[in-house]
Amino acid sequence: MSVIEITQLRLKGLTVDEPELLKSLSLVRGQLRTNSRFFSCIEDSSLIFIFGVWPSLDAHLEFLASPARDEVLGPQEDILDFRWTVHLELDSASLLLLDAPFIAIERLNVDPGHIVAYDGVIKEHVRHLQKTESLKVTHGWRCDMPTGSHELVILTSSGSTRPHFTFADERIVPSHDSNNKGAYQKISTHHAWNMERTRSDA
Questions:
Q1: Residue 28 — φ and ψ, nearest 5°?
Q2: Domain end among 52, 77, 92
Q3: Beta partners for residue 142, in sequence order
Q4: 100/166 same-domain check
Q5: What pTM, to 2 d.p., does this model score?
Q6: What percent of the chain shows pLDDT beyond 90?
Q7: What is the per-residue pLDDT for 169?
Q8: Better pLDDT: 117 or 161
Q9: pLDDT at 32 over 70
Q10: Do 55 and 112 lie in a common domain?
């Protein structure tokens, strides 16, 4: 099954507004044919996010372990430091979200004993956000986690930087679990703007 790769990188030696950055990212996109989108973090302009599509999780992992990895990505090592990567199955995350000017990326760790309950609550949270016309929301469980570990990723795209409630902000818990808010842990929440669109698109 096709997967979406979400990778966070930190800039070094240049800023997000320098043409060299987008030129380098676009060159790699063309070589890998991953239909990638590029976003710059609003909270920290030294961070960028790359969203790319791979035929399968194995296809991406095999590339990273191959000599082609150094050939394609090696030239970027002078300007980018790797931070983390997550993978979602493509049917759980729509590429249409990634064409928006702005996107929020929320990562949550969920206790193994609460997966079913939290999956239902997340879906209700998504339905609530989708009632707002300016927001498009999707979510999915990471497909690259070790056995026994479970991480949820929520993606919310919009046409403006107007804040919206994240799952963690709303402090939602399953009704039978109201005394156990430790069943999930927020890993991170970032807001980002599409580097191939202008910030005035909002």
A1: -65, -40
A2: 92
A3: 88
A4: yes
A5: 0.87
A6: 56
A7: 64
A8: 117
A9: yes
A10: no
Q: What is the pLDDT of residues 1-20, one digit of tens each?
A: 899 999 999 999 899 999 99
Domain that holds residue 174: 96-201
Rounded CA-CA distance 12/47 in Å is 10
Distance from C-alpha of 18 to C-alpha of 25, rounded to nearest angstrom: 12
* Ramachandran quadrant class, 166 (left: phi over 0; alpha: psi -120 to 50; beta: rest): beta
When divided into structural domains, the chain yields a total of: 2
Sign, CA torsion 163/166/170/171 = negative
Q: How many residues does the chain have?
A: 202
CA distance 169 to 185: 12
- 44 vs 159: which has the higher pLDDT: 44
The one-letter amino acid at 74 = G
Cβ distance 16 to 48 under 8 Å?
yes
Q: Which of 52, 44, 46 has the alpha carbon at shortest distance from 18?
A: 46
Instruction: Judge if 100 and 194 occupy the same domain.
Output: yes
